[in-house]
Each structure stands twice: as structure tokens, then as C-alpha cells.
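Hey, resending since the last one bounced:
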Amino acid sequence: MNQATFANKHNELSVAARLTELNQTDLTTLELNQLVTLRAQGNQTPLFCIHPSGGDVGIYRKLVTRLAPDRPVFGIQSRMLCGAASELPSLHELARAYAEIIQTKRPYGDILILGFSLGGFVATLIAEELHAAGRNVSFLGLVDSNPGWTVAAETSQRELCLRLEQVFTKFQSIGMLTAKPIETVQKDVAVLVDACLADKSMSSEDVMDQIDEMGYLPSGSAEVAMLSKFANTFLAHCNLLADFQPPKIDCPLHLWWPSEATSESESGASLWEDHATLGVTESIVEGSHYSIMRGPTVRLLASEIDAVLEQKNAVESIKAR
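The C-alpha cells again:
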């Protein structure tokens, strides 16, 4: 549920303009465009970061600047941000496509994968695909990815309201949505989520119409176009999440939860443990769903990820002796 694409307004405008110029793209070019270099330099094993519901990998940029400087980092963004008119029909198909992209970029050696929010669900399926192909995923990290979101309808509704409320607040802070009191935002978000859950066929245009009727849309056509693109991508991925079932995870699994969601994270950790054959480690980091990736405490998350990867390197060095 990523609003990172909108953090830099000028960059977003250029991206929106480029997207409108793309009509049809061959698969090879599409896949190449999906792989985003977040940091090219470094001689350590590269880390692959998987996009959340918004489809963009910009949410990882602050984290990358705080990770050890000798590790290359790549992101895989949604095909819908690369000219494709629609998303693949299931998270499993996304995982197969992303596993292919990763193997093309890294044809041999260990593979490290990190997923935030929906990206965590996809990351587990990618690991499953890579394991079936005989590849070794030596690090699988999930940041606030709770499989409980797909289990109970009331939980999904609560989580969607919380996430959408944070998205609205962020967009209001950068002038892309009209500012309103938080109590009004909470009430309007609840109405919007109820409508989306009641009608699974609801399109991004329907969502934008409802947001417009609520009085949030600015007058600028560029902003409206960007919000519409975000809504379309966000809805496409949320609809895919409804059918997610945790796979068997045959690699070390590391979980990070924001402190503001500790009650829900306890049930989430339990659900992952049922599927992780090599065990689970978890940690609580100060913040909310989005601030854990974008706020000042992102350095704590980065240091913990570095520590896990350094420990992995140390163990491998001992084994190699």
C-alpha cells in the first residue's frame, strides 16, 4: 500500500507523462523495465526488493541509503507502471515472472529477497518458485506482511481502513488531496472501504468518482491522473491478495513488524510459523506501516537487516573453511 511514487511530485509528473506515451511493449522490454536499480555498486550478494500494492519500489529508497554501502540493491516494480494495461491474474503468476527476472539478473549464487506489505506475500511465492528451480534463497525478509489480512473479513476491513487512512494523510501533506480533519478522513475512508469490499468489480474510475464526490480531488488534471493510476494499480493488487495462501517456506524467514501493529503482528507471526520449515525470527521496529520504511526509524530497520546478512556471511565463511 505504497505512496512512495508520489513523494517527489516532479518525478511523478514525468513518470505519468511517460506512461501515457507507452501503448504496447514487448514482454522482454517490459520485464527489463520492471527491474529497477536502487543501488548498482557493491561486491556483496545483491538484494531484490518486491513492490507493495502501489506497484512502485520507491518505498525502499530511504532504506537502501542506510543499508551497508557494499551491497547492490534491485527492485521489481509492477508491470502496470511499465506500460501494461493490466496486472497478471494471480500472485502466483507474478511470482513466476519475478523469479524469472531475478534469475536472469543473477543466474548463479544465493538469492536475497525483501518484501514490504503485499511485496512480502509475493516474496514468499518467489522463494517457492526459486526453490523448485533448484536455487538457494538464503535470506527472505518480510516487513509488515501479515497473512491474517486475508483470513478474516473484519481484519481485512480494519487493515484496509488503516492503510488507506495513512495514504490519504500522506497525499494531503503533499497537496495531492484536499486537507480535511482526521475524523472526517476516517469516516470517509470507512465508507470507501465498505464500498470496495461490497463490490469487487469496482473500478479505479468508480473509486476516483467517490473520492471526488467526497471533495478530496484537487483541480489539477495531472494530479488526478496520477491518483487514478495509483488507484488502478492498488486495487488490482488488493484483489489478487484475496486468494493468497502462505506457501511452504524452505528458507530462513525474517519478520519485521511496526510497533503500532504489535497486536496483529502476533497472529501474523504464528501464521507464518506454520509454513516456515527452517524457523522464523521476528523483530519490532518503532513506527507505523509506512513510517517503518520512510520515517527516521528506517535506519533501525536497515541496521537489523544488515546484521542478519552479516551473520549469514559469517556462517558461510566458516562453512567454506
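The longest strand covers residues 137-143.

Sorry for the duplicate.
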